[in-house]
Amino acid sequence: MEVPPGLGGKRLDQVLDQLVETHTRSQLQKLVRKGRVRVDGKRVVRSNIGVSAGARIQIHFDGPPAHEPASRPPLEPLTVVFADEHLVVVDKPAGWLPHPAPRSESPSVADELQRLYGPLPTPFGEERGGIVHRLDRETSGLMVAGRTAEVMHALKDQFRARTVEKLYVALVGGRPERDEFQVEGPLGPVPGKHDRQQLNPPGAGKDSETEFEVVERYRRHALIHCYPKTGRRHQIRVHLAARGLPVVGDALYGTRTAAPLPRGCVEPRRHALHAGGLRFEHPHSGERVSFRAPLPSDLEALRRALSADGGRRSS
Questions:
Q1: Three-class SS of residue 40?
Q2: Is 136 a known active-site residue?
Q3: Catalytic residue among 13, 17, 136, 298
Q4: Domain spanning 5-59: which superfamily?
Q5: ∠ CA(271), CA(272), CA(273), 5° rounding?
Q6: Where are the domains of the chain?
Q7: pLDDT, tens only, 17-53
Q8: What is the dihedral of CA 195, 72, 13, 93, to 10 degrees?
Q9: For 155-165, how does the pLDDT look when each residue is reduced to its tens digit (9 = 90+)?
Q10: Cα(81)–Cα(103) distance, rounded to whole angstroms?
Q11: Does the pTM exceed 0.90?
């Protein structure tokens, strides 16, 4: 296909979005990242490059177009909780990536925000438009993204200064002895297992700290509010597992030690962790703003089932 004069100078993904009706912009961006697109015979891997009028574009398609049914059940849509000209707060469903990743077909917050609001700044990585912090793919809940580079840097500074207040909700196996407790210590990768983290002896990792509050106790499980003071990879999941309270459904840190679910209770398809609260200073107004996201339907159904098995609120 040839780029018409009216699209000359625009970004490659914008041009493709106008010329290819069978695929979404997100799907087209993924094809670019995979090296399936050539411009004037040269393979490109960045979708934000400008293309000239008259340029020849070749696309090698792989996978179904947008109108064909997917081979797996569709994920829940991304929910915009708040948006202004400076930032966006979203409620990310489980299964969504914060930003595109190699060899993954999962939808990403970065791609969806670009579809909704147009190109976003990328000071922290070419594929991370707007993204200043991350959630694990199977963790649901609140994320804030910046719509300008200035706002992105200001938000990043708040995360680094640990002034952003975060609340996570976890359903765990086991019954905590205390209503409130804290876990801290150096966190680092497990040798030979790049996808796992562990608490290490002093000096052998990055400092990590989480405060926990037990909200409800069930027969063999509990609902816990988690307040991370640092933002390390898998931090909450590792800290809870270290206390013998693995997150329900956590395949990395809880499979062998998880308490069995009550009879008739459906095993979640992901770990039962949700980013339910976020509070920070709005970079433009200076106002302290707060956002909450209720438990998604899968975790709420699990909570109700556990509560019916003998639950009570903690005092």
A1: coil
A2: yes
A3: 136
A4: RNA-binding S4 domain (3.10.290.10)
A5: 100
A6: 5-59, 79-161, 165-313
A7: 888 877 777 788 888 887 889 898 888 888 888 999 8
A8: -60
A9: 999 999 999 99
A10: 29
A11: no
